[in-house]
């Protein structure tokens, strides 16, 4: 919402911390060293669903990692976050996510094992 010259973004609270903290805490608390498989599967299913939802709308996150996956207060539902890393349709050329610092090292060095094989999907690593 906008108030005068300022623009405010109101978002749902994600007070359960990030996925990295949850996994590290579970690793220290359990003799087996991690989240119970049932819990891990539920969170992974949510993550796959969220990424599919973004990709269907032409959004590529470009910095998906455990620290950018937040949890609600009950630590049951994930929320994907990130600052300046989402790119609509990979077409915004004036945004810093497309700069040389965002290109993966393998792309920069042209270091691929399958150079001539056809690729599928969107070219997320190319700016």
UniProtKB/TrEMBL annotation:
Coiled-coil stretches are none
Q: Which InterPro entries match?
A: Kinase-like_dom_sf, Prot_kinase_dom, Ser/Thr_kinase_AS
Q: Does the entry feature the keyword Transferase, yes or no?
A: yes
Annotated GO biological process: intracellular signal transduction
Q: Where is this region: Disordered?
A: 90-127
Natural source organism: Eumeta variegata
Question: Would the keyword Transferase be found if you checked this record's keyword annotation?
Answer: yes
Tell me the classification of the organism that encodes this protein: Eukaryota, Metazoa, Ecdysozoa, Arthropoda, Hexapoda
Q: Where is the Protein kinase domain?
A: 1-127
Q: Where is the signal peptide?
A: none
What GO cellular-component annotations does this UniProt entry give?
A: cytoplasm
Provide the GO MF annotations for this entry. ATP binding; protein serine/threonine kinase activity
Which of UniProt's keywords are assigned here? ATP-binding, Kinase, Nucleotide-binding, Serine/threonine-protein kinase, Transferase
Q: What is this protein called?
A: Protein kinase domain-containing protein
Basic and acidic residues bias spans: 106-127
């Amino acid at each position: 919402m906008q108030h005068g010259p300022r623009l405010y973004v109101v978002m749902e609270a994600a007070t359960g911390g990030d996925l990295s903290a949850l996994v590290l805490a579970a690793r220290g608390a359990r003799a087996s060293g991690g989240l119970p498989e049932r819990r891990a599967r539920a969170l992974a299913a949510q993550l796959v669903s969220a990424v599919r939802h973004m990709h269907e709308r032409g959004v590529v996150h470009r910095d998906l990692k455990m620290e950018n996956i937040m949890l609600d207060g009950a630590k049951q539902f994930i929320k994907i976050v990130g600052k300046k890393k989402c790119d609509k349709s990979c077409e915004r050329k004036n945004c810093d996510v497309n700069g040389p610092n965002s290109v993966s090292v393998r792309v920069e060095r042209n270091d691929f094992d399958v150079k001539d094989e056809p690729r599928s999907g969107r070219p997320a690593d190319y700016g």
